Structure formats: structure tokens, C-alpha cells
Amino acid sequence: MKHTSIIELSLSALKNNINFIRRRIGKEAKICSVVKANAYGHGISTYIPMLEKAGVKYFAVASSFEADEVYEAASPDARIMIMGILYDRDLEEIIGKGMEFYVFHYDKLVKAVEIAKKLGKPAKVHLEVETGCNRTGLSQEDLDNCIKLMKKNPEWVEFVGLCTHFAGIESLSNHFRTTRQYVRYKEFLSYLKKKKMEPELRHIACSAAAIAFPDTALDMVRVGVAQFGFWPSPDVYNLYISEQGNRRERPLKRVITWKTDIMDIKHVQEHEFIGYGTSYQAQRDMRVAVLPLGYSNGYSRSLSNKGYVLIHGRKAPIVGLINMNLFTVDITHIPEAQLGDEVVLIGKQKNNTISVSSFTNFSNQLNNELISRLPAAIPRVAKV
Ligand SMILES: *Cc1c(COP(=O)(O)O)cnc(C)c1O
Question: Which of 92, 99, 162 is nearest to 131 (CA)?
Fold first, then answer.
């Protein structure tokens, strides 16, 4: 059956964004694409093959569940890294499939070694150290225990990475905090060097760090939001623009376009109300288009009576409340609009564009929040 909306993903935009990140960090560091939350809503099964076409074969996710989705979509030689929750019951399958995972708890490493011995296959681990984010991360004591265990079991543990995560490096106001994290991370590195334990990959940078502070790229960057064409924050954008002087290029391009079509058209007389309740009253005779999606499809209710969509390249303002599966827009000024015509919710149509940020400004959501919540049921298609 046809779904009520569709998401198109642009391969050329993705290639452009990956190339931009590549230019920022230089040739040496690897790019690991963070595809948690269904690839920030872009859709893992469609998006992973596109990433591979763009030359990326290292993927990071937040859970073992997501790792398995990526495993299904990726080619056999791809590398997959779990940065968050990995339940004990899944350890055997994860190690068996050769996937990599963060260790932020000594007990997890103990279990991993047991299973590795049983399988006759090493566990591929990234040690996450606590540098000041204070979410997950090994304390010095836990790290020492991990090192001891790894030295005892060199054939059962591959020391793939030493990593940490910045606590908000996208805001310059957090700079003192993130700088201290970087210092602590380097202390861990030299400590391990003294212990003759060196990882294959040192990695700490997210999108904002990779773009704004390329010296944090080390051996690998974990790029999330920027690969999809979004700036991590106004600070990072402004920093980049000021560095570039007057050159007016647009180095990041939005990958996603979200579309639907007109389901019904209504003539509404002056003084009539539209939709539920009394939130919108027609101030004149109006022509209104009904669209077949609503907040259950990821279109925020907070856009009620705010924001707009594009029809025939023109802005059609939202009138009335966003319902669970429907909402209405004013098309009085677009007489050529007909049943079944294309409606752009996010993206470009003729000379007009609806950016995700114009959308989220109205709804007070983060860019990440809006896109990552786009329902998995909406079909995704790859475009050139
Ligand atoms: C989400 C995440 C990233 C990517 O962050 P972006 O700001 O989207 O680039 C990197 N590292 C970790 C540990 C993450 O959880």
C-alpha cells in the first residue's frame, strides 16, 4: 500500500557533506558515520548503501539492536561499533559477528573475555574513559582493571579504540569544560603508553569538534548530524563562516526531502472555523487543502497555526491544529493546486525551500529531535 508521505535522500548531497568533512579533518583520520536513531531518521536500510557509495564503511550506533539493523544493510567488510547499551544476552552474537563495542564497565569486559574464549574469537573493544561528561566512561580504577585483564588475555581482546565524548563542544560557552576533557583524554593516552597499551584508533570528535576543532580528529571522527547536511549549532556555523571570510559557499547540503500530496480541497466561507475547536477562524472566503499526515507521522503538533508547506513552489500556511493523521493549509493564493498535487514538507520545490531549522524554529524542537523522530514506517528512497 502507498504510504501517506515519502522521504527522499540525496546521494550527491551526502557525497558533498562527506567530502567537506574529509577536507576539514585531512587525509589521515577515518570517518565513522554515526547512524543511531535510524540514521537520525533518514532510514538505515536506504542510507547505509548510500554511505558506502560515498566511501564510508565504518558505522556507529547506540545499541546492539541498532547494530543488527546496520549489519543487515551493510556489506560484509563494513565495521560496526556500538557506543551505548549492549545487553549481556547479545554479547555472544555481537562478538560472533565481529562487531565492535564500547566498554565503560569492567564487568562487561570480564563477560566479553569469557564469551570470546568460548567462541574462539576475540572481542573487539573500545575503552571509553571518563573525562568529564559524566554519563558513561571508565574511572581510573576501572581502567586499571581492564588493562590487567587485557594483558592477561591478549588473544581474546582486541584493543581497537580509546575514546571519550565531549559534553557539548557545539557551544563555545562550554569551551572551558571540553578543553579540560581533551587534556584529561591525553593524560589517559600517555598513561596507557607507559603501560605499553596502545589502541588502534584514538577517537573523540563528533561533528562539531571535527568542523570547529579539526585537531581533535586524531585517528577517527564520529560524525553524526553534519553528514546529513545540518550545522551542529549556530556557534560552529559562525566560527566556520568567520574563518572563511567573505566566501559565500554552502559547504553542507541537506540530504533529506519529505513530501506528501493533497488529499482533499475545501472551500471555507468567511467566519467558519477550520478543524477541531476554534483555533482558526476564516477571515475571508478561503480555499483549503487537506493533507494526509499529522503528529503521529512525525509532523509536530506545535506547528499548528504556524509554519507552512510548499505547493507549486509557493508557501501554503498551516491553518488550524495538526491532528493525529491530518492537517490543513491555506491555498487560496494557489488556484492551480489540485487533488493529488505534490506537497513539500521539508525541502525544495521550484524556487522555495523549507529547511528543517525554519520548521524547528516554530516548534522549539532541536533539528536532531525532529528528524530522528520521523517514523520508521515512512518509505525512504535514494536519489542521485
Ligand atoms: C551521537 C554521538 C556522536 C555524533 O554526534 P554529532 O554531534 O551528531 O556529530 C558521536 N559520538 C557519540 C558517543 C555519540 O553518542
Answer: 162
Residue 78 vs residues 33, 44, 334: alpha-carbon distances, Å: 11, 14, 49
Which pTM was predicted? 0.95
Smallest CA separation from ligand 1 atom 13, residue: 165
Tell the residue number behind the cell numbers 483555533, with chain if given: 279
DSSP state of 121: S
For atom 8 of ligand 1, the residue with the nearest CA is 224
Residue 366 confidence class, pLDDT cut points 50, 70, 90: confident
Query: Residue 298: pLDDT above 90?
Result: yes
Cβ of 165 closer than 6 Å to ligand 1, yes or no, is: yes
Residue 351 exposed, middle or buried by CB count within 10 Å (0-12, 13-18, 19+): exposed
Give the Å distance between the CA of 280 and the centre of ligand 1.
41
Give the torsion sign (CA, 227, 233, 236, 240).
Answer: positive
48-81 burial code (b ≥16 CB/10 A, e <16): bebbbebebbbbbbebbebbbbbbebbeeebbbb
For residue 210, give the nearest of 43, 35, 34 by alpha carbon. Answer: 34
Minimum-distance ligand 1 atom for the alpha carbon of 368: 8
Q: How confident is the model at residue 364 (pLDDT cuts 50, 70, 90)?
A: low
Cβ–ligand 1 distance for 124 under 6 Å, the answer no
Across the range 64-87, mean pLDDT stands at 97
Q: Which domains are present in the chain? A: 11-244 (3.20.20.10), 256-383 (2.40.37.10)
Q: What share of the chain is helix, strand, coil (3-state, %, to 5)?
A: 40, 25, 35
Digit-coded pLDDT (tens) for 194-242:
999 999 999 999 999 999 999 999 999 999 999 999 999 989 999 998 8
The kind and range of the H/E element at 91 are: helix 88-96
Gap from CA of 369 to ligand 1 centroid (Å): 14
Q: Is 207 in the pocket of ligand 1 (CB under 6 A)?
A: yes
CA of 360 to the centre of ligand 1 (A): 20
Nearest-angstrom CA–CA distance, 51 and 59: 9
Residue from 16, 41, 2 nearest 225 by CA: 41
